[in-house]
Amino acid sequence: MNSRIRFDEELENLKLELIKMGDTVMQNIDAGLRSFLTMDVELAERIVKADKIVNAFEQTIEKECLRIILKEQPVAKDLRLITAVLKMITDLERIGDHAADISKMAIFMEKTKKPYGIPEMKPMTEAATEMIRTALASFINHDVALAERIHDDDDVVDDYFESVKKTVAAAIRGGTIDADYAIYAMMVAKYLERIGDHAVNIGEWVVFSITGEHKHNLIF
Amino acid sequence: MKRDENVEGAFRIDGLNLHYGATHALKDVSVEIARNRVTALIGPSGCGKSTFLRTLNRMNDLIPNCRVEGSVYYRENDIYAPGTDVIDLRRRIGMVFQKPNPFPMSVFDNVAYGPRCQGIKDKKTLEDIVMRALRDAALYDEVKDRLRESALSLSGGQQQRLCIARAIAMSPDVILMDEPTSALDPIATAKIEELIVGLRKDYTIVIVTHNMQQAARISDFTAFFLSGELVEYDATDTIFSHPSNPKTEGYITGRFG
């Protein structure tokens, strides 16, 4: 018989809050890029504000983790799970910042209004978002193999970054891109690339939560 | 469990079975207990951990209808072999109980009791033994001006440390502790825990505890008992991070037991 039903409910709730935070972050990335590609300043401003929701998630989950540690004195897999959540929310929060950063590029571009079509931008965003989705799914399903796959998925995002760089460089050489736009587009691509890196971190904490190993070192 | 070659064995237990009448209290327990280390015995009430502790200095001999099979080697001598000097065995393997049980006599006389029984009469020698034991038990500073007062006037935590001093005065190799802090407040508990960690350099300590955090804090090795069986024995860090047996994990994470 399980004599810690309430504790298990608290842990389930913690996972649920993490998923909600992840969903909010992914929506912000998607809308953030949309605001940049369509020069939608109003949407961009909404996303910058929406980052406060992500920050609030981080604080709430952090408090909940500490409260559970204090009250329940978790050990073994329970302690790993809570520690992993504490680490993952830091990465999710940073990803949220980058979603807001992408939106800020749209706000900065307001006066220029000379967009240049970079075909890689949308699939790159989708690839980065998918990495987050995979990381969260691997956490919920205790799937080490899936979590480890995220590292390879990051190569795809990195390749997109190189591709965006080449496209923008060619456009600069050809004089077909607005100078400010070129800079902002590269910054957006860099933010997306960083989002991929944070998704890799999340995947590494998922592996830790299951095995106790972080980057192949047994730490707990 | 990966054997640490640097850790010497104190006890080697082979196929130990213990019956109280019709009750099979310990079932085929085999384990080695490390010397100069703290080993914690954990498990739910009635799992056999206290019974196991008491086999280590034959305290179960005092219980009627108690039958022991198998071997308990202490430094390569089977302590259940015929001819074992049980009195000497208990001198070398002392015990501290759950409830502090000082004798109704002075602080000094409590500690001097054992050495006196051994025939030590010289005042200076006795004093040296008592002072050293009180210091080792981290009690000296608190009782140095009260040595002639009744031990019963001490606080619960001080009484328990006095009992540890009384055990130490017999110059044992091993100290067995059966839930030594369960009757104490958190401050007194912390003092005993500090003491246990300090004592391990000179003594082998085996402690029964219901307090999982205590086992995690102070022990080097942990043995998990369930229904008379030794389910798992390993380094404490391993037990509390990666237990091998799902039953151990269930117990340490509080899911059952």
Q: What coarse outline of chain B follows from CA principal-axis ratios?
A: globular
Q: How many strand elements of chain A? A: 2
Low-confidence parts of chain A:
none
- The quaternary structure here is heterodimer
For the CA atoms, what is the radius of gyration of chain B? 18 Å
Spatial arrangement of strands, main beta sheet of chain B: 6-7-8-3-9-10
Unreliably modeled segments of chain B: none
Mean pLDDT of chain A: 96
* Gyration radius over CA of chain A: 19 Å
CATH class of chain A: Mainly Alpha
- Report how far apart the termini of chain A are: 27 Å
- Strand fraction of chain B equals 25-35%
Output the strand order for the largest sheet of chain A: 1-2
Query: Going by CATH, what is the homologous superfamily of chain B?
Result: P-loop containing nucleotide triphosphate hydrolases
Structural class of chain B: alpha/beta
Largest sheet of chain A: 2 strands, antiparallel
Question: CATH topology of chain A, what is it called?
Answer: Methane Monooxygenase Hydroxylase, Chain G, domain 1
User: Count the helices of chain A. How many?
Assistant: 6
What is the helix content of chain A?
over 70%
Helix run count of chain B: 10
Q: What's the architecture of chain A in CATH terms?
A: Up-down Bundle
